[in-house]
Design goal:
mainly alpha; 2 domains; 3-stranded mixed sheet; 3 strands; elongated
Length: 102
């Protein structure tokens, strides 16, 4: 099982391998459980999740760029932000691995 940082706000995906209905039901209340059939598929998902911190960093930079060009924070948030109650930097820091933090 791989719960990702947005799960803290009941927003994130949870990769579950192998599929298990009982565990999926247990964790379904804190995020969206995606049942994965094979470890090979799970490893591919791990690779993609490694891009979460840079993704949130890009969103932050795009939002700041728009605001620097006189767009309101609300407009930049609407165009560049995920539907989450916390700022980009929070998700970027929470999504970073120990290697990307150094």
């Amino acid at each position: 099982m791989v719960p990702l940082p947005p799960v803290a706000d009941h927003l994130g995906p949870i990769a579950l391998c192998p599929p298990d209905r009982k565990i999926a039901a247990l964790f379904g209340g804190i995020g969206t459980v995606t049942e994965i059939d094979t470890e090979e598929q799970l490893h591919a998902l791990w690779t993609v999740t490694a891009m979460m911190a840079p993704y949130f960093g890009f969103l932050q930079q795009m939002s700041a760029w728009l605001e620097a060009r006189k767009h309101s924070a609300a407009t930049s948030a609407a165009l560049c932000r995920i539907d989450a109650p916390r700022p980009f930097g929070h998700w970027q820091n929470r999504s970073a691995t120990a290697v990307s933090r150094s």
